[in-house]
Structures are given as C-alpha cells and as structure tokens.
Amino acid sequence: MAAVALELEHAIGFSGSARAPLHVHPSGHEMAYASGACVVIGDINDPHKQAFLRGHDNLISCLTMSRSGRYLVSAQTGDNADVVVWDWESRELVYRMQEHDHGVMHVSITEDERFMLTVGVTGDNKMVVWDLTTGCIVSNRPNMEKTTCACWGGRKKSIKGRDTTEFLIATGGERSLKIWTLDPASGGVTDERVNLGNQVRSFTRLAFSESREYLFAASSSGDFSAVHVRSLTLHSVTQACSNGVLSLLVQTSPAGEDQLIVGGGDGSLGVFEGSGRSYRKVTLTLALALALALTLILNLTLTLTLTLTLTLTRTGRGGGAAGGRERRGGHGRARRAAGRRRRARVPRGDGARRHLPRGALAGPRQSRAHAREPLRARAPRPNPNPNPNP
Fold first, then answer.
1. CA 212, CA 156: separation in Å to the nearest integer?
2. For residue 302, what is the domain's CATH number?
C-alpha cells in the first residue's frame, strides 16, 4: 500500500518549554505560538481559524516577532539548528539561516528591524548577528562562554548622550554578565565585563531601560540587578520572588521612573518602580494584575499595554485623599478671606476710627519693647544681722 500523506488540520496546545513561545501580533487580532516543530498562527476571536508555518524538522526552541509584526522568526534544536525568518503577511519563508549546530537558545530583532541576534546552546557557543535586509552575516563570535540569556540594547550613546552608529548587546550566564559593542560597518564586536563585586548570580533574563542608562539582569535567585551601562558597575539588587525570575519586562512608569514587571517561578507577578539605586514594589489591583500577566505571557508591546484603561494603586494614595485636599483648600480660602475682613476693622473706642483702610493706623506704630515703662532702681534690703561678730 502506498504511503498516505497526512495534512495537519488543527493544533491544540503549545510548547511551553521554548523561549518566548507565544506572541500577539501588534494588530491585536492574531497570535503566533510554537507547537512542536510547527509555528501556529491563530485568530484570537476565532479559535478554529489557524494557519501553519512548517519549516523545521525538530522541536522549536525559541520564537520572536519584530516590533511592527513584519517578521516572525523561529529556531530549533538538534543538529540542523536552522533559524527561519517568516514574512507575516504572505506566510512565506524569507530566509533560512544555517550557521548554528546543536540548537539555538536565543533569537531577537532590533527595534528598527535591521539586525537579528542569534545565540547557540552549550556545544555550539556562537553568537551571530544577521542583516535582515540581505540575509548575510554581519558578525560571528565563536567560543562564547556558557550563555543563558541575551538582549539588544539599541544604539550606543556617546559621551554627550547622542546616538551613534554602534549597537549594544548584553549577554548573561553563570557568574557572567557582559555588555558588547557592535560596529555594523566592520562587523567587529568588543565585550566588557560588568563589575558585580561579591555578587554571584546565574542570570536568566536581561532587559535594558528605555533610556538605555541601565541594564536589568534577573537571576535564578529571584532578584534583579540594576547595572549602570556607562560605568559597568552594580548599583542595586532587589529581591522580587522565589524560584527564579522567568519573565522580565521593562518600561517607563507614568511618573517617568523605570517600571519592571517581574514574573517569578513561584507564580507571582510583581511590579517595581524606581531609578537605579533603589526600587520599591507597587501594589496592584486585581484587574491590572491580570493585564500584566497577559503582557508577560503574550509578550505584548508597550503600546498595547498603555491602551489598557487601568491604573496602578499605590499605598496611601487615592481619590479620597485628593478630595480631602480639595476640601481643606476650600476651607483655607474662606479663613483667609475672613482674616482679611477682620484686619480691615479697628475696635471701637474713644477717638478710634471705624473701618480704617488696610495699613492705615491712628498713630505711629510702637513695638512692645518701646511701650514698656522704664525700670526703677530697687532699694537695698536691710541686713537682718547687723552685728558682724555674733
């Protein structure tokens, strides 16, 4: 009997062990997730509507989507550790990158969708930067230390705070945290090790602040470290959860501070706000906690997060306090007006005027010291014992 080819009709479930296995398209109507060796594109409003991107022969290890949703990139484990770039609109394969061996543990794209970073697993030990306009390799760094996480840091800033043509990349691993500088023109990369002092950490997630002033490194110890990018020094360590940090999202709070959303291995979800030296935990409403959970799980962009009509509730702040301040301000205005009316009147008396204008007095003003009577000399006290030799 001839072999019969089976066609995939519907997929249930996804590969939760992959790195960032589920993404929501910026349009808000579709999502993409890894399911075995296949990428599934599903309609959020219709669970029966699915499309499949089949370009791998082994399990998908990581998945990412560009900022605008133009590109979708998937990578796999095994000897044929290919990285496949898909066009979202046409559902067609754009590039197949065949540089890694044994597997790929990280893939990410710059915000301008120009370059792509891929990092291999232990045994491959390669960090490769690709040009998405040509599909060619920009830089290839072999013999890397064991790397467990990486991220783009945007364009490197000059001493004057202006963007340069170079890019920042951060990598982390066991007792190792580095910041790399990439020159796309020459393909050269240089690394600088962060001074962690006596801190010993195994890093799990990395993210730069939107100002690119700080690098946040989450660890398996359940905390995150704030590293000053220019000085490469550790500024603070904040405990966030237990059982390690599994998700980390950094954005800017409404007050202009760094806001970190941390998902822990203990199932907790915490929000921290601060600026470099110290971070405080922010109290969440239940509705906001659910929204932030979706942000982490579905990897929503900051734009989609800001469209949620939810606000953070901080301890000691609320509408009642604001209303109390407004009421106290109203009473204060009434008291000041009454005081002005009282100052404009002079008590009745002989020769005193009534309703004098403010500032006008019946006579010259004298201080209390001038109004006192002069001191009189006291008479000496008589000696009760006039005899000096009793």
1. 8
2. 2.130.10.10
360 has a pLDDT exceeding 50: no
User: Encoding tokens for residue 319?
Assistant: 């509408």
pLDDT (mean) for 195-216: 94
- Strands 258-264 and 245-252 come out as antiparallel
Integer Cα distance of 174 and 196 in angstroms: 12
For the entire predicted model, the pTM comes to: 0.71
* Domain ranges, residue 306: 145-314
**229 is a domain residue:** yes
Q: What are phi and psi of 338, to 5 degrees?
A: -65, -35
Residue 238 lies in a domain: yes
* C-beta neighbour count of 336 within 10 angstroms: 9
**pLDDT digit string, tens, across residues 159-180:** 888 999 999 999 999 989 999 9
81 domain residue, yes or no:
no
pLDDT class of 274 with cuts at 50, 70, 90: very high
Q: What is the pLDDT of residues 11-61, one digit of tens each?
A: 888 898 899 999 999 999 999 999 999 999 999 999 899 999 999 999 999
Q: Is 104 part of any domain?
A: no
Q: In what order do the strands lie in the sheet with 269-274?
A: 245-252, 258-264, 269-274, 279-282
303: CB partners within 8 A, 6+ apart: 26
Task: For residue 334, report the phi and psi dihedrals to the nearest 5 degrees.
Answer: -65, -40
Do 279 and 223 contact (CB within 8 A), yes or no?
A: no
pLDDT of residue 166: 96
CA angle 130, 207, 36 (to 5 degrees): 60
Asked if 299 and 65 count as a contact pair (C-beta separation under 8 A), the reply is yes
The token pair that represents 282 in the structure block = 């922010």
Averaged pLDDT of the chain: 81
- Which H or E run includes 169? strand 163-173
What is the DSSP secondary-structure string of 208-268? Answer: E-TTSSEEEEEETTSEEEEEETTTTEEEEEEE--SS-EEEEEEEE-TTSSEEEEEEETTS-
First-last CA distance in the chain: 149
65's enclosing H/E stretch is strand 60-65
Domain count, the chain: 1
Q: How are beta strands 30-35 and 38-43 bridged, if at all?
A: antiparallel
